[in-house]
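ok posting inputs for the NAP job
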Amino acid sequence: MPSVLITGCDAGIGREFAKQYLEAGWEVLATYRSLDNVITDSKKVQNFKLDVTVASDFSDLKQKLGDKPIDLLLSNAGIGLDVAKLGALDFDYVKQMYDVNTVGPLRLVDTFADNVAASDMRRIATITSRMGSINLNLSGGHYGYRASKAGLNAMMRSLAIDLFDRGITVVSIHPGWVDTAGGGAGNAAVPVAESVASMRALISKRGNHETGQLFAYDGMPLPW
Ligand SMILES: NC(=O)c1ccc[n+]([C@@H]2O[C@H](COP(=O)([O-])OP(=O)(O)OC[C@H]3O[C@@H](n4cnc5c(N)ncnc54)[C@H](OP(=O)(O)O)[C@@H]3O)[C@@H](O)[C@H]2O)c1
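and the output
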């Protein structure tokens, strides 16, 4: 069975990915900001600590996993949405969003690209947001979150080019407006189980000729 390493399984979309891949029989390497939140109702899950802002967490996990092939590297952990207005911006939070949403996923790929290259499927998927699309920004605001996801998209495009010769397919996915804590829970349009099921189908169908593209969870290509 294929293996998947997922960041941010403490809650929300990451946790749902872990549960659905477990149900599908995959080998799931679930990572958490805090091990207080590990999935306990499955004997098959392998749980690891990984705060994506902590460099030593990456080296510790790499040491534990060694050269193990990872079929799908799934970067999900993220924070936002900033709602502060000009004149009242929280610049520490702007920087924190960049650390978590942009630098963290790059460090993830930097650490585990060889493990992905050693696998059969050779896929990297990152959960971004259409809020990072400059073309689709018609409502302004959300400076830090938008910039962190636009930066993430730029990095994933470069990674797609740089990893193409190793047969690795990179895909960036907007999950929809999802009913998690991060999506504002009750108001969101897409149930988390539906978003994740659609994204799993999307990830499985992408070929290497489609590497470096940005999609919505339902498979619709999105502009940068
Ligand atoms: N929900 C939406 O509508 C929506 C829309 C567009 C994009 N997204 C993106 O989808 C992804 C998942 O969001 P979500 O809706 O599931 O949000 P969520 O419910 O807030 O979950 C975010 C996850 O990321 C983890 N996390 C936060 N900081 C971390 C760090 N430094 N290291 C490792 N893990 C960390 C959180 O852990 P803790 O619980 O311990 O904080 C949590 O497990 C994010 O990248 C988000 O930007 C979501």
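notes: The pocket of NAP is lined by residues 7-8, 10-14, 33-34, 51-53, 76-80, 100, 127, 129, 174-175, 177-178, 180-183, 188 (CB under 6 Å). The mean pLDDT is 95.
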